[in-house]
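Bug #2210: token dump truncated for DUF881 domain-containing protein?
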Amino acid sequence: IITGVLIMINIDLNKTSYNISLNAVEYKKALEERNKLYKEIESIKSENIDYRYKISKYEGNDPEKNKKLVEDMKSQLFDYGKLSGVTAVKGPGLVIKVQDGDIDKVLDTERDIMRKIFHQEDMALIINEARKAGAEAIAVNNHRVLPNTGASCNSAFIGFEDYSREYGPFYIYM
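Reproduced locally. Full output below:
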């Protein structure tokens, strides 16, 4: 009898199946989350394959591979320097001059005046459009615009995340 009871308890303890009831909305969300995770896993696997391929190109003591490795590293260093604003960028480009509109304090309403002033939203639009158009480097007057650069309106100035400010007219170099 004791052996039978122990067997029954053991069978009951190892029971791991359980049921969860989901309504249609919860089920749909669960499926979307699962599919999203599967896509993320595939993306990570693909990245992993790419990285393994890159690493395999540099393995060994072949002088040609070492030379290629140094060239690739210099190229990446230059690219990262451009992105971080450390490397000077030269070449044909575009300069946009932006300044506030002419304001007539007698005839213009406050709304008209606000529309004629260059604000941070305008600066953000110009910077984003320049990036979208493929600008390699962007500068506002003497301030280099980096990927994490934010702009704020400070009266007649445009302020940046490093607390520097530039005043109008604004020359935007691309």
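Output looks complete on our side. Residues 95-173 form a domain with the Alpha-Beta Plaits fold (CATH 3.30.70.1880). Marking as cannot-reproduce; reopen if the truncation happens again.
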